[in-house]
Amino acid sequence: MTLDTTLETLPAVDAGNLTPYQRRMFWTQYIDWTASASVEELEQLQAALDNFTTHEVVPISRLMRQVLADEQRRRQLPATLVSQLEAANWPVAQAHG
For the ranges 6-10, 16-20, 48-52, which has the lowest average pLDDT? Predict the structure, then answer.
């Protein structure tokens, strides 16, 4: 799989239409998680997201929704981040339905 086709293979998720509240909720949880994450968890997140980057600039909230929608790729994310987003009712459930 090439970088150019990575996002094409992710499930279609309407992540571009997040409400302002959903965007704030994501960033609140993401910043809170990064403040308490271990170095290993931060490296795991970096490695997971590196697998999904393209030559386009994609908001991390959109990328995270797409990654969370794919169960195999979702498992590559730090479990603590996924759990924190789910606990905050961030639109994870809609993404992996």
Answer: 6-10
